[in-house]
């Protein structure tokens, strides 16, 4: 019974579940039906909205097209300008409906209306501004002003055609007035061209300034087209009458033209130069030349050499004149006339420098200003600066390269004619003596000593060459800044700088040669003295006094006149030491035989000369400066060798082994020739010398692998540490001896 009741309960439960399931299915179906209706309503609403909007647009388009066609026929351009833009905007909404015949027909009607408007507006402008005939309108037209507003909406070609025709008609009178066969067309009356366009621009603004939209920049377009026409006309007439172009005429025309281009830059922005109605003129590359701000300065401005200029980072200066070269570019093919003129002028300038130097003589030394520099070099570089600035204003292309070639030519001529050509000549031989032969040492020849004026002249030429060298380097930098970037590699004044370096070297060598030759008689007297007969050591010998006298006569003059170029005075000291010391040692070897007392006297003389040479850079000066280390090292090394030679001579030659070992240790010279000279100085007999030489060869250090034979062997160059140590040891020996 309980089981039956449970089964009944289960059956009832299943029945309820089934009812619930049926109700759920009905509810689901009901929801679907409701939702389906809502979706249909949403689609209907969206389609209806789109249809209404499209119909409104279609109504607007149809009405707009009708109105547009009617207004076009009545030339109501003011209303058309506003309506046409709206019609075009509405038509864009129908791009996806072009498959519908009616829509496509409306689109074709709009395009037809636009074409008709374009042709009609062009016809109206042609009627108002005929390209042929003398008819000129009395003033602006409101119809044409509105037509320009319509042209802004139409195809851009319509606007360009209007601008082109108007400008062509506006400049037609210019082409007639300044035809090639007219007298006013030549360069000497180029001012009249620019005066004419200025009047036309004023006339345009008064009559037609309000007719064209301001964004069309018609005033600037007229000026730009005038520049293009003028450039073409000037190019044509200059090709025809090229033989009549003179330098003054060419520069006059270029100056007036660049002034006009500057006027355009102040008046207009140059916004029309990049569009299709005109070609943008070539603009010079950015320049870092600090001279740009001083290009209108006087001719007496000199190229100032400032190291700080080269150290500072250079900021390119953007050209502020977009109209630069728009007309003046036509003169570039004819700038050869200017270049030839500068060639001639520089040739005359060099000849004048030569004549002035002969007439006035060498300049007086001016120690207060650090030495006398020839004034002609400043004049030359001032003229160079003037030419460079002037030419860069005319062109930054090939003419600048041609001008650089002219500069190079006359820098070399100045170096040889003015500087090298005026270096003093010696009178020791026949005329025609050149610097090359002068600088060749002829032992035993008598060389006349330079006078004070000649020494000052050599120093003046050296200072001038140094100034020219530095300024030429700066000139090269400025030329590279001025020229086009593609031509920079062709600017190279290294050869000319080398020429001035040669003049400097020759001048220093002349000063060394003069002082060296003045000391020769004293050294000759030293070698001829009977040193074996010297009985006692006294003060320094007369020949030392003579050498010191010549040094005290020459060196202060040279130092004072080279005060502004200390490095070259140091070079002079170094070259003199390198010349005098080997010559002194050679004469020392000629002093034979030498007694012990004679060797001591020579050692004293050598030490005196060493002290004088160490003091050479500041000798006779109230301000004592420490000699440069490079110079001191040369003197100490050379004169210490001379002292060591005498020390070896003073040493006893018995026993021979000790003598040979001391020689190798003190002199470090493995040459048998030097050893032979030492033996000659000691006055040994040939038999003794022979045994000594054999012993010397045996005691020589072993040569390095792959070295030469011992007979011609010289010790390899010592390291700086070895050299320093050796010098210190020798100095201690000398101090101990003295």
TrEMBL record:
<keyword id="KW-0967">Endosome</keyword>
<dbReference type="GO" id="GO:0055037">
    <property type="term" value="C:recycling endosome"/>
</dbReference>
<protein>
    <recommendedName>
        <fullName>Vacuolar protein sorting-associated protein 53 homolog</fullName>
    </recommendedName>
</protein>
<keyword id="KW-0472">Membrane</keyword>
<dbReference type="Pfam" id="PF04100">
    <property type="entry name" value="Vps53_N"/>
</dbReference>
<feature type="domain" description="Vps53 N-terminal">
    <location>
        <begin position="1"/>
        <end position="357"/>
    </location>
</feature>
<feature type="region of interest" description="Disordered">
    <location>
        <begin position="276"/>
        <end position="297"/>
    </location>
</feature>
<dbReference type="GO" id="GO:0010008">
    <property type="term" value="C:endosome membrane"/>
</dbReference>
<keyword id="KW-0175">Coiled coil</keyword>
<comment type="similarity">
    <text>Belongs to the VPS53 family.</text>
</comment>
<dbReference type="InterPro" id="IPR031745">
    <property type="entry name" value="Vps53_C"/>
</dbReference>
<dbReference type="Pfam" id="PF16854">
    <property type="entry name" value="VPS53_C"/>
</dbReference>
<dbReference type="GO" id="GO:0000938">
    <property type="term" value="C:GARP complex"/>
</dbReference>
<keyword id="KW-0333">Golgi apparatus</keyword>
<dbReference type="InterPro" id="IPR039766">
    <property type="entry name" value="Vps53"/>
</dbReference>
<keyword id="KW-0813">Transport</keyword>
<dbReference type="GO" id="GO:0042147">
    <property type="term" value="P:retrograde transport, endosome to Golgi"/>
</dbReference>
<feature type="region of interest" description="Disordered">
    <location>
        <begin position="699"/>
        <end position="728"/>
    </location>
</feature>
<dbReference type="InterPro" id="IPR038260">
    <property type="entry name" value="Vps53_C_sf"/>
</dbReference>
<dbReference type="InterPro" id="IPR007234">
    <property type="entry name" value="Vps53_N"/>
</dbReference>
<feature type="compositionally biased region" description="Polar residues">
    <location>
        <begin position="711"/>
        <end position="722"/>
    </location>
</feature>
<dbReference type="GO" id="GO:0015031">
    <property type="term" value="P:protein transport"/>
</dbReference>
<dbReference type="GO" id="GO:0005829">
    <property type="term" value="C:cytosol"/>
</dbReference>
<feature type="coiled-coil region">
    <location>
        <begin position="3"/>
        <end position="44"/>
    </location>
</feature>
<feature type="domain" description="Vps53 C-terminal">
    <location>
        <begin position="600"/>
        <end position="684"/>
    </location>
</feature>
<keyword id="KW-0653">Protein transport</keyword>
<dbReference type="GO" id="GO:0007041">
    <property type="term" value="P:lysosomal transport"/>
</dbReference>
